[in-house]
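Page 37, continued from 36.
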């Protein structure tokens, strides 16, 4: 590690998979993909810009090479996020597809990728500790198919060690989370994020669908209340960390939501619940219920964007709709750190 030495998290561990509620299933193989560390994104969500608005707008040529990284397969919050389409993305990885344990019980299992941290280090850095040329200036999204800060002891220890690797590598990290563990002291997650921010190479994309708890509960049965999410985002922002609000899926919100976003973060990636493609499938009942119960649901994204632009003092705040929001977050982070 260069610069100030941070206290080391626990030694590399290889924890056992967490498999809850296995009764009634025959599990004779694990999902494929446990060897994957960094995946280049050249098509699909990250590689093909949608024709959606963004402020400021940008084009494909502005976007850095994006890689994604999931430190484990599975998620322990799946029963909370009713909208989650991630298990359907992975059905080709599960023997038995939709009838497999892995699909049916998404949210109840997690399998750690073997030696993730040391393999991440080897992939990003050469033997002399220099960033390999293909990763210099690359943007890494951590993580697209799970929460890298699941509040589980072993998972947080792995992520703390991964952040040490990112401290050493010359690339930009976007942490996607909805977890309070972003503030974790032991292992020291927050301290590492702040150190990464000092080196201008991290952003936190924090999930928040609305500022109204009852609306959030339509699509997320558990999880932090909106006020707590806004508090965490504001804390990160105050600590000098670039913060993007992952307002996805957007749900009905109060007239103050736009101002709260401007106060607590730097950018908003806005997306309504929609039919997803590329093998991913938003659960149909959740999509149909949302669209039938909420009048003009699909117009909410543009409405929120307009309201953000109308907030006094929002000139520096940026936003984008659909993948322009998530891709634009990398560009917004770059602008933020250039000025700081
Ligand atoms: S945290 Fe992400 S991957 Fe996990 S259940 Fe929620 S939306 Fe799906």
């Amino acid at each position: 590690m260069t610069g100030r030495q941070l206290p080391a998290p626990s030694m590399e561990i290889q924890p056992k998979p967490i498999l809850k509620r296995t009764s009634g299933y025959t599990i004779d193989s694990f999902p494929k993909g446990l060897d994957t560390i960094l995946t280049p994104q050249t098509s699909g969500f990250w590689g093909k810009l949608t024709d959606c608005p963004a402020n400021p707008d940008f084009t494909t040529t502005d976007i850095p090479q994006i890689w994604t990284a999931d430190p484990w397969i599975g998620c322990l919050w799946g029963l909370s996020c009713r909208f989650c389409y991630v298990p359907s993305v992975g059905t080709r990885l599960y023997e038995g597809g939709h009838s497999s344990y892995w699909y049916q019980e998404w949210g109840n299992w997690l399998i750690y990728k073997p030696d993730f941290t040391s393999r991440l280090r080897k992939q990003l850095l050469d033997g002399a500790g220099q960033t390999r040329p293909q990763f210099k200036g690359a943007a890494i999204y951590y993580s697209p198919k799970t929460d890298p800060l699941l509040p589980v002891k072993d998972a947080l220890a792995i992520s703390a060690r991964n952040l040490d690797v990112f401290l050493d590598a010359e690339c930009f990290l976007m942490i996607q989370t909805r977890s309070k563990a972003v503030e974790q002291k032991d292992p020291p997650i927050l301290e590492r994020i702040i150190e990464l921010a000092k080196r201008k190479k991290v952003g936190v994309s924090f999930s928040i669908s609305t500022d109204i708890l009852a609306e959030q509960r339509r699509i997320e049965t558990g999880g932090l209340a909106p006020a707590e999410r806004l508090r965490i985002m504001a804390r990160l922002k105050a600590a000098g960390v670039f913060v993007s609000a992952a307002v996805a899926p957007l749900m009905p919100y109060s007239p103050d939501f736009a101002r709260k976003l401007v106060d607590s973060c730097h950018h908003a990636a806005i997306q309504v619940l929609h039919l997803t493609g590329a093998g991913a499938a938003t659960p149909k009942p959740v999509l149909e219920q949302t669209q039938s119960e909420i009048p003009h649901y699909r117009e909410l994204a543009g409405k929120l964007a307009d309201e953000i632009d109308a907030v006094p003092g929002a000139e520096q705040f940026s936003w984008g709709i659909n993948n322009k929001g998530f891709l634009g977050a990398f560009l917004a982070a770059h602008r933020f750190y250039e000025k700081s």
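The longest strand covers residues 242-250. Flag for discussion at group meeting. The chain has a mean pLDDT of 93.
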